[in-house]
Design brief:
Helices cover 40% and strands 27% of the residues.
């Protein structure tokens, strides 16, 4: 090979080598750039995921907090509705809804020589009344609100507190005993009874005093100005929540608006005492 041919070939080889070096450098630069871009995109994705998760966590927390607030609001509204209902009853003296329910559990207690009132205190037909309503009688039965005459059994009595427990057969709606420790002077009440033979009469009044001394010298009586007359004995004294807070017992002769009812907490203990003695069980 001639000398100038060798020079040409050497120059061409050098050019190729330089070209390959340059191409290598460019390719490496592109790879590095792509890697940098990839890392940047990955970092952005990671950052976006973290931000999204944080927002989802915050949204979940907000939803839970909102549900809690709604629940509390519903409870508050329920309490407000209850208080408002009681306020309406207090302001308007409207016991009609309570009377409609309660009167179905009130009965007329009759003997061959007299009558009084009683009320169902257990769904199995147990009735409480005043013991003096039965005094001297030889026959006993009750009339329910629909004027059905029902044969009645005498269970037992407590002479100190003038309470008698009776029993009729069947399933009945009972009246609930309230806590007489919670009553307030000035609170409105109703008395349901059969004064002077006028069956299922309702009178309204207020609580004038609590823990009054009865004829048994025990401070166990509610004083009320709700009208009580012969025939009211043994009937319920009911508060604005429809619960029995006392059993109407006696009034002071010659005095106006001086009626007395045995407090429900005493009544509960006496009923259970009679039931334990006579039935070997607790009723309420």
């Amino acid at each position: 090979m001639k000398k100038h041919h060798k020079v040409v070939l050497g120059s061409f080889g050098t050019i190729i080598i330089i070209f390959m070096v340059i191409v290598g450098i460019l390719l490496n630069g592109l790879i590095v750039k792509q890697q940098l871009n990839h890392n940047e995109v990955t970092n952005k994705i990671d950052s976006l995921q973290a931000d999204t998760q944080a927002k989802l966590n915050q949204l979940t927390f907000n939803l839970i907090e909102a549900q809690t607030r709604i629940k509390n609001l519903n409870q508050d509204l329920g309490n407000i509705d209850e208080e408002f209902s009681l306020l309406k009853a207090s302001a308007s003296s409207d016991f009609s809804g309570i009377i409609e329910d309660a009167i179905q559990s009130v009965v007329t207690v009759k003997t061959d020589i007299g009558q009084g009132t009683g009320f169902i205190i257990h769904e199995e037909g147990y009735i409480v009344t005043n013991a003096h309503v039965l005094s001297g009688g030889t026959k006993l039965y009750v009339l329910d609100y629909e004027q059905n005459q029902i044969e009645t059994a005498f269970v037992g009595y407590n002479s100190k507190f003038d309470i008698a427990l009776l029993k009729i057969t069947g399933d009945f709606k009972e009246l609930a005993l309230g806590n007489s420790n919670n009553i307030q002077i000035g609170e409105k009440v109703i008395a349901i009874g059969n004064p002077l033979g006028l069956q299922f009469s309702v009178t309204e009044g207020i609580i004038s005093g609590v823990h009054r001394i009865g004829i048994n010298n025990i401070e166990a009586y509610i004083q009320t100005d709700a009208a009580l007359n012969p025939g009211n004995s043994g009937g319920p004294l009911i508060d604005q929540e429809g619960e029995i807070i006392g059993i109407n017992n006696f009034k002071i002769s010659g005095g106006e608006s001086l009626g007395f009812a045995l407090e429900s907490n005493y009544l509960k203990d006496i009923i259970n005492e009679i039931a334990q003695q006579e039935l070997n069980q607790t009723l309420i």
